[in-house]
Amino acid sequence: MASKLKNAQLDAKKSLEIVEEQFQTFQILNEEGEVVNEAAMPDLTDAQLQELMRRMVYTRILDQRSISLNRQGRLGFYAPTAGQEASQLASQFALEKEDFILPGYRDVPQIIWHGLPLYQAFLFSRGHFQGNQIPEGVNVLSPQIIIGAQYVQTAGVALGLKKNGNKAVAITYTGDGGASQGDFYEGINFAGALKAPAIFIVQNNRFAISTPVEKQSAAKTVAQKAVAAGIPGIQVDGMDPLAVYAAVHDARERAINGEGPTLIETLTYRYGPHTMAGDDPTRYRTAELDNEWEKKDPLVRFRKFLENKGLWSEEKENEVIEQAKEDIKEAIKKADAAPKQKVTDLMSIMFEEMPSNLKEQYEIYKAKESK
Ligand SMILES: Cc1ncc(C[n+]2csc(CCOP(=O)(O)OP(=O)(O)O)c2C)c(N)n1
Ligand SMILES: [Mg+2]
Question: What keywords tag this UniProt record (predicted)?
Fold first, then answer.
């Protein structure tokens, strides 16, 4: 129905259409591994390009091994990551060590590449408290399970960095489902108002467990939600490592220059189930959709791109695979060697000064545990 309001500035529907038209998907490398946006090519050396590929291959292996370790009962909570490597690893690759990462439960690869030892990631999966004892100098928080909560925390961490005069950013990740939560809006709004150096990533893998993104929101893109918060927003091809890197690098530059936060939506797909707790993706996704997305695979397109430049080979890839398997074996051994956690451990790490009623309980457990 045509609007009765002829003046476009007063036409609410037109205003929305104008916004929607602005949010086109940013891409540099197409599915064939060809550069389609030369002007936006990030400034990365050959060695850096190879390192990014190495991390993606390594993480695909880590995902496969984690799934099989979970099935053997040797890991606990695990949210598969295959398909999301470009979105996860190219964004982390654009960071500096002093930047803080506030991950969601699927974002364990980013915190590993930011410095969390692999065995601790395995301990986190097992629900062992040592998995959450982040080493000094590794600027990551524990993976958040409450959907969207990390967005509010990121606004706070970013504001803290700004107040301390640190030239660093806080980056966080949630999913398409997370972008429907109140915390999402509060986080981007607060960071925008205070020009906090935050980068808000929404990895839109099209499903929140079984709920398709179309049922989550009337918004055509997640990126356009930035408009209401008055901050820049961009939708990126999340299967394209170069586009993800360029978008995050750009957002980081603006953040540390005092220009405030950015919202980045990465269009991606998880090949596996939501978690290893038992959902069956064939009940909510079609094989056609799976195939369509597997054709966009980030490793396949980046491999082609690098091979064309003479920067990658089967031999190199096999070396990475072997290294990953070796590291995983070692890390599981180390995780197995962690002492069984005790109730008294949980109590003593929780309090600097234990309340008197808990002191009593502490003694009771201590006596039980020494039997
Ligand atoms: C506040 C809250 N509500 C519900 C849940 C249960 N839950 C766990 S994962 C999930 C779906 C999240 O989907 P999305 O944000 O798209 O992230 P993805 O798992 O696809 O990466 C839900 C509803 C939760 N953990 N926290
Ligand atoms: Mg999702």
Answer: Coiled coil, Oxidoreductase, Pyruvate, Thiamine pyrophosphate
